Amino acid sequence: MSVDQGKNFKDILFEVKDQVAWITINRPRVLNAFREQTLDEMISAVMATREDPSIACIVFRGAGDRAFSAGGDFYAMKRLTFTNGSMWNDRMLGLAMAIRGVTIPVIAMVNGWCVGGGHELALWCDLVIASEKSVLGQTGAKVGACPTVGATQYLPRIVGERIAREMIFLAKRFDAKEAERIGLINKCVPEETLMEETLAWCENIKSNSSQTIRMTKKSLNFESDQLYASWQHGMELLAYVWGSEECLEGMNAFLEGRKPDFQKFRLANKAALADYMDGFHKNLNAPPDMRD
């Protein structure tokens, strides 16, 4: 049985060639940022590889030469609220589980920007190879979003707690050479040899035992599979963030090309606490006839 490569995809390109499934995020105009439809199509493409056991591996890449993926499309994420946030969160979890659940290795071939949710996509993959010009990292703290669907779970295990917290709290980004040094990616190569090096990995995988790879991938995932509860926890935290004033300030600022004013939320919170404490000292936390 062969995979149907003629699926009606609009946001991605899907091709199986020489036993390798290529999934290309085809939205270069927005640095391959993804929306709900993109996530649906990526899930469908990953799951389709199960229809052909001769496929040895999957390679994710971004169209063009500027980005692997800049993460979620802000025009999609700005529409999210606590009520409808599961429509996004469940898709993110669904893609992550598809990548981790498929029995073949999944490679992220990174060329250019790989940040935010795009970096979480790379974290879900088994192997990451990147060109020297690539930049990888988390941007949530800069735009009012929360990387709780992969980054908070996997980064501490990949690069350690200290660097993980630096990446998330400070929105720290690394160029590919540094990313390789700290273990965030497997290999950094010149842009002109990225495809050649990726194909070499694919050929290596093709020459190895599919049974061994299937069993060892499942075994390697054992400990991190137990983080599923953390994923659920993270998605609920994220649901509270979607549609909040602070989240929208971050996204709108990015789209408008200005710095976000997150300080106003700290000052508003300070004023709210001061008002609460004033009421506390005035015994406003008691019935009117019991106040001194």
From TrEMBL:
GO annotations of cellular component type: cytosol
GO molecular function annotations of the record: 1,4-dihydroxy-2-naphthoyl-CoA synthase activity
Gene3D superfamilies given in the database record: 2-enoyl-CoA Hydratase, Chain A, domain 1, Lyase 2-enoyl-coa Hydratase, Chain A, domain 2
Domain of life: Bacteria
GO biological process, one term: menaquinone biosynthetic process
Family per record: Belongs to the enoyl-CoA hydratase/isomerase family.
Name this protein carries in UniProt: 1,4-Dihydroxy-2-naphthoyl-CoA synthase
